[in-house]
Amino acid sequence: MEGVLNFSYGKLFTSDTVLDNAYMPSKNFFVSDQIFVHFLQKEISKEAWAFMQPKLSRLGYKAASLLDHFSLSADKNPPFLKKRDAYGRTINEIVFHPDYKKLLQIAVESGMLSVKWDPELREEYKGYSNRLCFSLAFLYGMGESGVSCPLCMTDGVARVINSFADAEDRDRLMKHIYTNDVEQLFTGAMFLTEKSGGSDVGKNLVSAQRIDSSYYLLNGEKWFCSNANAEIKLVLARTNPDVKGTEGLSLFLVEKHKPDGQINPMDIIRLKDKLGTKSMASAEIILTDTFGKLIGKEGEGFKIMVEMINLSRLWNSVIAVSAFRRCLIEAYQFLSHRHSFGRRVLDHALVRNKLYDLCCRYTADFYLTWKAISFLDKADSGDASSGQVLRMITPMVKRQTAETAVYGIRECMELMGGMGYMEDTILPKFMRDTLVLPIWEGTSNMMVLDMLRTYNKNNGLIPLMENTHKHLILGNEYEKDKNRLTVLLSDMAELRSMDKDHMEINSEYIFKELTLFVQKGFLLRAEDSESTYWIGPALKYLNEKIYGRPSGTVVPPSTDEIIRMIGWGF
């Protein structure tokens, strides 16, 4: 009996750790990312690369070392509304955890906004501004997605102010956007939706009454105000109740203080209790004789606001791809150092096959997103044809990347088993945060309707398809692709003879397949001797999505192939 009781657990198990002793998390999300580094180095000028490389490396280090701590802390300690002070006076103060400001500080000091909006940098790196800004946003999004919303809103507000505000407001406000000092920063917000319509903005009810040549008094409730504490808010309101739909909406610049320095009245009813992006404050706000300054002309508000909405959709795409990348890397590193059934989990065929699927989806979405951003840079530089492509590809990339990220992060959690479900890892937070991406800036259904609207207006699909054809000719299946595209475009043309319901339903299936061809074209254009390790499998994957998997026995990808597809250096 003594021999039975006198045992040691150490003799029964060789290790009681989850991962082997060789595990080491990434030290720098920029330096480690072979796909991102390879793409960006080819995409921007040598001068822009030399300027950006140290910035990207610094932020990549912070994203891998500091952001997780601050992000999880701010997520678990969300902002709260201090409605009144001790003497009963309404103050409507939103109180943030200190780590929220640290997150914002890292973003501002990275140069994310200054590289795009500082006049000198904007001129020096003309033609690359959006790609430089988004390259930093991509790295930042690998650590924190909640604060990415205020950054997105601030970038969008800057775009509107820079293009449509008068010179005095532009000079006064823009310096607070491109500042590298978080204490001087003015963040932005877009107060768009209302209870009456949600995505149907044409049903908005908030009114605006003129009081002088520039200022109006705004009255009514805005139902979903993200970054509610912003210093600069762009608000849609109706100047003439008799003009229905979006044609009756005008855009107003609303600041925290009125022209005389008094507090501009905005009553915060409550903060939204959201599933994710908890670090950032979203609110329901009632405007009562709130001062707003007209931007542009009356009735042009929604048209101007679309500039901000479309930019926000690209932000949405970048954050989707970024979050997916981070979770994919977390799963990959875990599987590389987790052992089960006598070998590394990474070496199991079903695991490799799932990683193959996720890597291909990521690669296709990565290039789709960044090519859309390059079209934005070209359009901003005056290229009209890129502007035409951008109108179709923006809702396409927003829909595609948001849906992929939600799917991909869930799969990454499953690959990590119970560990992926634990709140002391980062995957649950990313899962919650990412679930909003198919909703924000227009739901997936709204993206289909936007693509359909662009198609019906001046046949807006043609410029994108012409661009896609030029890329597909580089592939071995060009004749096959050309024939299939001809059928799809013929099907699209037939939609015009259908009633509204049939048109919408059938366009969704067509646009989904067209997206695969657009992705394939971009990958063919980008493939070279180095990127073929991750682009080659993605092209095979897209072909199988379009034409079906060939019959016969499936050959699982090898471990080495998966490692090359991941494109990540520990």
From TrEMBL:
Residues 299-453 form the Acyl-CoA dehydrogenase/oxidase C-terminal domain. Its cofactor is FAD. InterPro entries: Acyl-CoA_dehydrogenase-like (IPR052904), Acyl-CoA_DH_CS (IPR006089), Acyl-CoA_Oxase/DH_mid-dom (IPR006091), AcylCo_DH-like_C (IPR036250), AcylCo_DH/oxidase_C (IPR009075), AcylCoA_DH/oxidase_NM_dom_sf (IPR009100), AidB_N (IPR041504). Residues 189-289 form the Acyl-CoA oxidase/dehydrogenase middle domain. Keywords: FAD, Flavoprotein, Oxidoreductase. Gene3D superfamilies: 2.40.110.20, 6.10.250.600, Butyryl-CoA Dehydrogenase, subunit A, domain 3. Residues 26-175 form the Adaptive response protein AidB N-terminal domain. Pfam families: Acyl-CoA_dh_1, Acyl-CoA_dh_M, AidB_N. Belongs to the acyl-CoA dehydrogenase family. This is Acyl-CoA dehydrogenase family protein. It comes from Echinicola arenosa. The lineage of its organism: Bacteria, Pseudomonadati, Bacteroidota, Cytophagia, Cytophagales.
